[in-house]
Amino acid sequence: MGVPADSRTVPTYCYQCVAGPDLLRVRVEDGVAVSVEGNADAAACTPSGGKACVKAFGLIQKVYNPHRVLTPMRRTNPRKGPDEDPGFVPIDWDEALDAVAERIRAAREAGGTDASGYPRIAASFGGGGTPTYYMGTFPALLSAFMPVDFSFGSGQGVKCYHSEHLYGEFWHRAFTVAPDTPSCDYILSFGFNVEASGGVCGVRRHAEARARGIKRVQIEPHLSITGACSAEWVPIRPKTDAAFLFALIHVLLHEKRAGLDLPFLKSRTNAPYLVAPGGFYLRDAASGKPLVLDLLSGRAVPFDTPGIDPALTGRFTASGVEHGADDDNWCHESVPVHPAFERLIRHVAPYSPEWAGGICDVEPALIRRIACEFLEHARVGETVEIDGRTMPRRPVAVVLGKTVNNGWGGFDCCWGRTVLSCLVGALEVPGGTLGTTVRLNRPAHDRNLSVTPGPDGFMDYPMNPTDAGNWVDRPAVRNANRTLVPLVANSPWSVALGPTHLAWMQQKQAFDHWPEPTLPDLWFVYRTNPAVSFWDTAQVSQTAARFPFTVCFAYTRDETNHMADILLPDCTDLEGLQLIRVGGTKFVEQFWDHQGFALRQPAVASRGESRDMTWIATELARRSGVLEAYNHAINRGAAGVPLKSGHGDFSLDPGVPHDVETIWDAVCRAASVEISDGADDHGLEHYRERGFRVKPFPRIKWYLTAEMEDQGLRYELPYQERLLRIGVELGRRLHAKGVGWWDAQLEEYEALPTWKDFPRLWETALANHFGVDIADYPFWLVTARSMQYSWGSNAAIQVIHEVAGNIRGHGGLVMNAGRARGLGLADGDRVSIRSPLAETRGIVVTSQGIRPDTLLLVGQFDHWATPLAREFDMPSMNAHVPMLLSLTDSTGSGADLARVAVSRLEGAS
Amino acid sequence: MSRYVMVADLNRCVGCQTCTAACKHANATPPGVQWRRVLDVESGEYPDVRRTFLPVGCMHCASPPCMDVCPSTATRRRDDGLVTIDYDLCIGCGYCMVACPYQARFKVASLAGAYGDARMPHEEARAHPERLNVAQKCTFCIDRIDAGLAAGLVPGEDAEATPACVNACIADALTFGDIENPDSRVSRLLRDNESFRMHEELGTDPGVYYLWAPVS
Amino acid sequence: MNVVPKPQAYWDTRAAGNFALGGAGSGLIAFAGVAASLGIAAHAATLAGATLVAAGLVLVWLEIGRPARFLNVFRNPRTSWMSREAWAAVLLLPLAAAGAAGSAPATIAAALVAVVFLYSQARILESARGIPAWRQAATVPLVVVAGATEGCALFVILSAIGVVASGPWPAAGYAAVATVLVARCVAWRSWMVRLETHAPGGSSAVMKRFEPAFLAGGHVLPAVVAGVAWFVPSISDDLLVLAGLLVVLSGWALKLRLVVSAGHTQGFALAHAPARGGGLAGPGARPGWNPASGGDRPAPERIEQPEADNAIVRRERT
Questions:
Q1: Which among B56, B73, B107 has CB closest to C65?
Q2: Torsion angle, CA of A355/A229/A583/A382, rounded to 10 degrees?
Q3: So what's the architecture of A73-125+462-568 in CATH?
Q4: ipTM of the complex
Q5: Do the chains contact at A1 and B28, CB–CB below 8 Å?
Q6: Sign of the Cα pseudo-torsion (A280, A281, A284, A286, in order)
Q7: What are phi and psi of C283, to 5 degrees?
Q8: Which end of chain C is more exposed for a tag (fewer CB within 10 A), N or C?
Q9: Residues of B numbered 98-117 whose beta carbons fall under 8 angstroms of chain C's beta carbons: which are they?
Q10: Rounded to whole angstroms, how far apart are CA atoms A878 and B109?
């Protein structure tokens, strides 16, 4: 190794996972990227302390990986399928782009939608929105030829925090939920795997919290990375978390009520709202406002009457009106009514720790102790000063992980979590349970700004209509998101947050009284691999093989682009150019004290014929005749910043194509005037040198409290009157259409969730659908994220595989050591894993840290086409999870859960 | 006299392997060679189980068994505690590897890259033929320490003079410094916390300390 | 699991070959020296012993990563038993050559150096602190006695086939074989006892599986064969060759097992599981070691007492 003649570091960012971005530097010696390090310049202004995540250390190999697709490719074998050799041949960019542009033109000329009303063009991107941080101006291109169907999920809905996304945004602008870790003292974590999925920022915040003595209790069937880092591990039976949460609420309400944050419940929630006999609020006949019982006057008065002391408990007699679904209205004279809080108390009366103990396979005393610890740590009544404002301080939080907060039970757990926080006033306050960001509400960059007054003293919510006149009766996209899921709203993210597996399922079997499930004429796939990352991967692969024309942006060959017609090699992370917004509050635990912009820039020249996504988007726009609309979209802000503002106009000439640097220079200038309030308009060169630019973000914006207090708004908790009404209305609309296959989902629209036996629900659904005896499949199969791989699309990167190998579970099927011994299995044995749906094979990894009735497969592997990854011999749970309506909740999500049997493969050892 | 040591706070470590990967970058080690890595150790029996992440590598022992057995004197110990290998003296006998109770030493017989014999440009640029067929291990990033000291920096305090794994640790679990200096970060951590060293009973006097609880 | 002790992968059959050939060769030279001191010409034995020692060193030379730098092996006789072995070899081979050429004093001197060489080999293993099965003090007598046993057996074979004179006292040969076999048996058992409590479970498991064949095929059977030879002089030479071969080959099998299969690494140990945040510290772990085994000290569980850990409670913030 000689001394390099030229050595420099290039600032850029890594946003491979939702817990990004990490600002980092790439060392480049004589034109070759050789190593990655954190960006020390960013240490003071990023919650990551300027450090880079392990995944970022795979980016150098990502650039130079010899398995990269480095020229555009065309399929020569018209037959598609896993067993068909695609016969890809290299072509030049002109041929590739023209072939794609021709399809775009044809789709647009055919009117954009097909006979079923579905978009002729579809696009699928990887999870969590991270691909948008790499796709340059591609969103501008998509917006230029809308409609585009984002229905075909690559994991969204089945492998995300789906119920949390929807209910979280509804209740407290929480697309995801996080503890206020830096000031929290006690966290109940139901399978929340922050040490594996929280990125640098999450890991760092929790490490600091542990160092000062935070107590985190991890409630999860296996001892995950996060469980390992927790003060206590409670091995709960899979999918019974709701019972545990209900029991905690029971203890607080029935044994510790006096210690609760009653002022918070009275003023910031619907706890005092009187509930009429029909289950809807008792309202003031004149104003229509919900009534509360004023203890001072002894009368029922509108909730916002000044100077009252509303009752939380008791049974009262009052008069008023009750508004049900549609035009159902009742006038009540002196009827018995209860405050919602009283209803809650009665509702959870049966859910004692003794009741939950049997369901969860957890000692009742332990549940009771945890409830008491939670309350003790909540310090009800304490305050703290934030940015000069006195706020409640409640250093307790509850967080939920994947499989807990999606699918059946997701609603119940999200409700339980949020209600627990409300009971001690720990919602959206320092130390408590916080929302992170919004994706369904607008604007996306500051959730505080999305807080506006809505009905009945609550925040407004962009619910999809369910009334007869406005219900979206004909789905505009294949997963029917707005039609079936009122909560999914109508933002650019709403399609991806619909019931994405419905789009795949329908391709196998159409739903009654529903539009014909057509395939899109043209399907774009970018930075995702649904043939591996979705459920029932065999079915997804078969369906993908039927798509008539698939264009995959290809890094290496993989399981999805195996079915593609055209492969387009785009720049990797260290080769492309893009400016993004950073800071404020974002996913997972990204709570910054700054906000601004960061640049991703080429550390090295792009390899082979790979091209920047912005170049590709511009060329496709030009060749498909949408250049003007594309440029207009960029000018409007599709590249992250509107190019025209009060501080300056950097708009691009819409009539001509612009090169990559011109576009991003304009975006940088617009960003500069925005962040400097017009003081300067530094362009691309400024960002190239520094890599980022930020200004302070007030910490008070981490919490909704100030906004809620200032606007006098309440959280729509614990009582779900609005959901109850919506459920009835949606049911009427669907039934009028003859649709009965969504009835089970309609039952989830409850004012207060009742416990359903969720494990049994799974067992029954599987037994009924497959006609099997579930006893033949004695194990629950669960999954967990891997810090080294999650969201990274980096299974082809050797160094990631190498370092991940140090962590137990990357080698195979994790099984309780005692149970394995009982089955005559030992570490390293090769076994068959059978579910009612599929059979896979893998190596046994024994562990004490997992329930005897549970098995674990980390991550999502099972690759058969991706170079390197196909040699891992690592099974995935995805092959085993069927897409079933009976396992789909009302938000349209499912949970990562399967039932399997395990047997030793003969002849193997 | 200085003795440079590393302190790993087991309360903080999450096993993310960022240090492992950062070490591979900083030292351009070949595939499969991890001078620094983090182990995943289980203790206890279900349901009373612990899972601990344990950063390991060369312990830079004060009494290094590898040095005593080395027939070529390639392995030496500096006055500041760093155990070094002279790649030009080492005959690659592997004796140090069986003498080291920490499995910290590696020997590779090929310059092949991560994806096979055809090395990638960055592997080509940073190939280390001098390490072929000889013993190699964690150096505590000796080049950084020496360059930092020459520039008047303090190892463990200034990032430029501190091992790459310590700089990269996202949980601030790793700390480096001079244990002979009572004011160093490592000295302070060792005063404030209970600690142990691995296989201390073997008489190696290892230079990596593991914190496991605050001093009560 | 990468934390559990596994057979070391640094020294392979070539290294084991040096311990086998070098041990047997130096043992043979030692017996040639005894013979020479008794006035029995054993030139061929000396030559054969030197050849074996040299062959063993060639195997090692083939194993080292940088064979061209082999001269550096001599640089550290101050502390390294490998350097000392090399220096012993440098003395041994010329002396043995002189002995083979007919010099009885050279043979006797070679025998003395051979003992040093053999002892060095034993200390090489014993100094490998990373391999619990090797680093036991009991390894030294085991390896030395094994070398002597093999050397003795080789001497008997060479006598039986007439390459060296059997000397005036055939009974002495039988007595010598019996002595070394008993000695090897004793050394083996005492080493095994130590192994069970001071090495990872994997090491003793390998050797326990090996023990029946080793004791039966390497001790009982050759003893029986030699006994028959004693009583049936007509075929005694053939039987002695057979018995000798059994002794030698079983010794070599021992070296192979010891170096390649039972040389488990130390593995990793955690004295305490840390207190995580506001939680309690917990007992440690030493994966791959029998909890009851001592290693070279009591197991962490025993000296550290989990109860004591519990006393160190991280105070919850109040």
A1: B107
A2: 60
A3: 3-Layer(aba) Sandwich (3.40)
A4: 0.98
A5: yes
A6: negative
A7: -65, 155
A8: C
A9: 98-103, 107, 109
A10: 39
